[in-house]
Design goal:
By secondary structure, this protein is of the alpha/beta class. It is built from nine helices and 14 strands. Helix 5 packs antiparallel against helix 6. Bound molecules: zinc ion and fe (iii) ion (FE).
Length: 256
């Protein structure tokens, strides 16, 4: 089983997973990079998993399905191109002989889903689209801060060795903000150094692991004293945990 992030657009990753000549791809915003990888590796595309409706995650779906006949599995609550099998939180999908558990993770979009597998090769695997990023989280375009916080809580409860496959290479920009919010966090500084080295060599910082994210991601740490106090220094009106999380997200939106 091999997991490959295919770069697309400016900073997207289209995740390709393959085994024994069969592949699945997650969030193909473009068909070109997927076609090229299938050809180069001699793979048959069995399935296309889609986390949410944004064009940078779905733009290549119809073309890939037409060319390969692959199944398309995506959120029931959103309009997905191609002939899409509708999925909701709690559903299961069998693809590449792997049992994928569908999680509803609304916030970035209203119907956003994530795909989790208990064991792929030797560790759990999560495709979380634009809900959780390394060192950050997606913007709340359609849902509410309370929904996004609950979605991140659900992801945070997955095993610490879960490999976290996100939709974008936003890690360094996220960590620059994280350092301001969680300034006493040594794990964060060490992780940033590690990620800088990877990017300097043009390597992806992903997948991350859930254990790493729990240690360094301010959006999974908004209830810690350090992050809560930093947020309240910016916005003293943020009292309860949802208000703190909302203020943290807003702070990041305006951070440069
Ligand atoms: Zn998106
Ligand atoms: Fe995106």
């Amino acid at each position: 089983m091999e997991l490959i992030p295919l770069p697309a657009f400016k900073d997207n990753y289209l995740w390709l997973l393959h085994h024994d000549g069969h592949a699945l791809v997650v969030d193909p915003g473009q068909a070109g990079p997927v076609h090229a990888a299938l050809q180069r590796l001699g793979l048959t595309l069995d399935g296309i998993l889609v986390t949410h409706h944004h064009a940078d995650h779905t733009g290549g779906v119809a073309e890939l399905q037409a060319a390969t006949g692959a199944r398309v599995c995506g959120p029931a609550r959103e309009a997905i191109p191609g002939n899409c099998e509708p999925l909701r939180g709690g559903d299961q999908v069998q693809l590449l002989d792997i049992h994928w558990r569908v999680m509803a993770v609304p916030g970035h979009t209203r119907g956003h889903i994530a795909f989790f597998a208990e064991r792929v090769a030797d560790a759990p695997l999560l495709f979380c689209g634009d809900t959780l990023f390394s060192g950050g989280c997606g913007r709340i375009f359609e849902g509410t801060p309370a929904q996004m916080l609950a979605s991140l809580d659900a992801l945070a409860a997955l095993p610490p060795d879960t490999r976290v496959c996100c939709g974008h290479e936003y890690t360094l920009a996220n960590l620059r903000f994280a350092r301001v919010v969680d300034s006493g966090n040594d794990a964060l500084l060490a992780y940033e150094k590690h990620c800088r080295q990877l990017r300097a060599q043009d390597q992806p910082t992903l997948p991350s692991t859930m254990g790493t994210e729990l240690a360094i991601n301010p959006f999974l740490r908004s209830r810690t004293a350090a992050v809560t106090q930093a947020v309240q220094a910016q916005d003293p009106s943020a009292r309860d945990e949802v208000a703190v999380f909302a203020a943290l997200r807003l702070w990041k939106n305006n951070f440069s």
